[in-house]
Design brief:
The chain is mostly helical. Helix content is 37%, strand content 5%. α1 crosses α3.
Amino acid sequence: MADEKDIVICRCEDVTLSKIRELIEKGYTTPDEIKRITRAGMGPCQGRTCRDLIIREIARITGKKIEEIPMTTFRPPIRPIKLGVLAESEDDE
């Protein structure tokens, strides 16, 4: 079995299971807290890959039900968009 330091939970930001567990043990028990510290969920997939894994790990370690763990806060853009789209204006021709 792979060592937990090598298991990547957030592939976009390269955050490992051991880092997630370390933060939970230090008292960071919401996905938003972990997101702010590690950037997990802030990459191109916007947490679609890692969000549920992080919530499950928080629930497992804290003994809470998954339903009790708050969902991360979504801020625009929720879906990745190209910077060129933001830079364009209607006046450009």
